[in-house]
């Protein structure tokens, strides 16, 4: 297998294989090719028409079927990133192929559940530390390459789940890649991912489907009702138009967390129903007010102020898991990392440099880092300085 030089490792990804060229995989490829047109990108997909369209759109420099020799050749000839953008149910076969081909580059994925893939990677890969779970929080009611677009991830959150075994440089390189296509990285502990996305993604999808079911049941013989549904109702239930097969798979992959969330939603809806039944205006008003206040507190569309960047420098012992620990603390207090660099001072020590946008609680970040045993220094950074250091 061709070995990468250290310069190539630090210069971004040059040879990328995207396995699964559906909505997410194709959109990622489109965004990457737009950001780094010099990068080679292999589209791996079972569908001949999809592979042809990938090349015609310029989103791939080459294509291969999963069982084609060209796939293995690309992997063994210096591929430095593999992106698994397939359903969880078929991931294990690809992991076995990568293991058989002695692939030593970085592997990430785009699945909306993590526990099964993490288990597969641990059992299958000879170098499991090279797998960094990922999950872009973006999508569309449109499926496949036909619905893909290069700007799908602009302003979207992209979860990365490093752990104690993740090399610091792996996280830094993936962070740079994800932010280069306009997404925002959130670092989450692996064991917390599935429960978190059940609340903010999976349960809402099934609530939207339930609302559509409710409307359909009452629409028989009432054309006016469906005309009314074309307004705000249509916007709030847009996600219910997603692929039934895909969402059925997601549901069973995250069965326990989704079931718990739906049961909790039953209780919340029951509180509203109980207040109505009891003619309890005070309780109903309080429930509505709590929801209204929380909704208003959600951040607006992300438009960071480039005039208010902040550099955080953290001297650290170069030990396993330190980057995962720092980035998780940063995400928990709502701070957004614009860029991340690791300056190795000695074999055992380094300085972690984070450039933050004007978001989150900097005071809480400082306190939490100090409580975790880190010493930190903060300094304002102009856009010109940031361009220089990155």
UniProtKB/TrEMBL annotation:
<comment type="pathway">
    <text>Amino-acid biosynthesis; L-tyrosine biosynthesis; (4-hydroxyphenyl)pyruvate from prephenate (NAD(+) route): step 1/1.</text>
</comment>
<keyword id="KW-0520">NAD</keyword>
<dbReference type="InterPro" id="IPR002912">
    <property type="entry name" value="ACT_dom"/>
</dbReference>
<dbReference type="InterPro" id="IPR046826">
    <property type="entry name" value="PDH_N"/>
</dbReference>
<dbReference type="InterPro" id="IPR003099">
    <property type="entry name" value="Prephen_DH"/>
</dbReference>
<keyword id="KW-0827">Tyrosine biosynthesis</keyword>
<keyword id="KW-0057">Aromatic amino acid biosynthesis</keyword>
<dbReference type="InterPro" id="IPR045865">
    <property type="entry name" value="ACT-like_dom_sf"/>
</dbReference>
<keyword id="KW-0560">Oxidoreductase</keyword>
<protein>
    <recommendedName>
        <fullName>Prephenate dehydrogenase</fullName>
        <ecNumber>1.3.1.12</ecNumber>
    </recommendedName>
</protein>
<dbReference type="GO" id="GO:0070403">
    <property type="term" value="F:NAD+ binding"/>
</dbReference>
<feature type="domain" description="Prephenate/arogenate dehydrogenase">
    <location>
        <begin position="14"/>
        <end position="306"/>
    </location>
</feature>
<dbReference type="InterPro" id="IPR008927">
    <property type="entry name" value="6-PGluconate_DH-like_C_sf"/>
</dbReference>
<keyword id="KW-1133">Transmembrane helix</keyword>
<dbReference type="InterPro" id="IPR036291">
    <property type="entry name" value="NAD(P)-bd_dom_sf"/>
</dbReference>
<comment type="similarity">
    <text>Belongs to the prephenate/arogenate dehydrogenase family.</text>
</comment>
<feature type="domain" description="ACT">
    <location>
        <begin position="311"/>
        <end position="384"/>
    </location>
</feature>
<dbReference type="Pfam" id="PF02153">
    <property type="entry name" value="PDH_N"/>
</dbReference>
<dbReference type="InterPro" id="IPR046825">
    <property type="entry name" value="PDH_C"/>
</dbReference>
<dbReference type="Pfam" id="PF20463">
    <property type="entry name" value="PDH_C"/>
</dbReference>
<dbReference type="GO" id="GO:0006571">
    <property type="term" value="P:tyrosine biosynthetic process"/>
</dbReference>
<keyword id="KW-0812">Transmembrane</keyword>
<dbReference type="InterPro" id="IPR050812">
    <property type="entry name" value="Preph/Arog_dehydrog"/>
</dbReference>
<keyword id="KW-0472">Membrane</keyword>
<keyword id="KW-0028">Amino-acid biosynthesis</keyword>
<feature type="transmembrane region" description="Helical">
    <location>
        <begin position="12"/>
        <end position="32"/>
    </location>
</feature>
<dbReference type="GO" id="GO:0008977">
    <property type="term" value="F:prephenate dehydrogenase (NAD+) activity"/>
</dbReference>
<dbReference type="GO" id="GO:0004665">
    <property type="term" value="F:prephenate dehydrogenase (NADP+) activity"/>
</dbReference>
């Amino acid at each position: 297998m061709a070995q990468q030089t250290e310069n190539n490792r630090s210069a971004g990804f040059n040879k990328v294989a995207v396995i699964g060229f559906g909505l997410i995989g194709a959109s990622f490829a489109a965004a990457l090719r737009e950001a780094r047109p010099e990068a080679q990108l292999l589209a791996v997909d079972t569908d001949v028409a999809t592979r042809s369209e990938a090349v015609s759109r310029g989103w791939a420099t080459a294509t291969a079927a999963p069982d084609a020799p060209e796939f293995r050749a690309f992997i063994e000839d210096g591929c430095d990133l593999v992106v698994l953008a397939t359903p969880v149910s078929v991931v294990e076969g690809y992991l076995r192929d990568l293991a058989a081909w002695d692939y030593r580059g970085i592997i990430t994925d785009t699945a909306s559940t993590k526990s099964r893939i993490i288990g597969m990677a641990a059992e299958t890969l000879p170098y499991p530390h090279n797998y960094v779970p990922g999950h872009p929080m973006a999508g569309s009611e449109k499926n496949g390459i036909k619905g893909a677009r290069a700007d799908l991830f602009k302003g979207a959150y992209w979860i990365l789940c490093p752990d104690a075994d993740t090399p610091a440089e792996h996280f830094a390189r993936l962070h740079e890649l994800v932010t280069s296509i306009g997404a925002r990285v959130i670092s989450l502990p692996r064991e917390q991912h599935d429960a978190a996305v059940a609340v903010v993604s999976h349960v809402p999808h099934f609530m939207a489907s339930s609302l559509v079911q409710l409307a359909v049941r009452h629409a028989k013989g009432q054309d006016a009702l469906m005309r009314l549904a074309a307004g705000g109702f249509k916007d709030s239930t847009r996600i219910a138009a997603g692929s039934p097969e895909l969402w059925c798979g997601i549901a069973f992959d995250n069965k326990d967390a989704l079931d718990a969330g739906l049961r909790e939603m039953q209780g919340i809806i029951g509180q509203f129903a109980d207040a109505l039944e009891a003619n309890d205006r005070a309780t109903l008003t309080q429930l509505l007010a709590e929801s209204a206040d929380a909704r208003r507190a959600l951040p607006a569309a992300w438009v960071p102020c480039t005039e208010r960047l902040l550099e955080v420098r953290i001297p650290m012992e170069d030990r396993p898991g330190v980057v995962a620990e720092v980035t998780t603390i940063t995400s928990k207090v709502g701070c957004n990392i614009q860029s991340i660099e690791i300056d190795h001072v000695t074999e055992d020590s380094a300085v972690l440099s984070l450039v933050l946008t004007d978001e989150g609680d900097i005071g809480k970040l400082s306190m939490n880092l100090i409580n975790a045993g880190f010493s930190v220094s903060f300094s304002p950074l102009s856009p010109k300085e940031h361009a220089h250091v990155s």
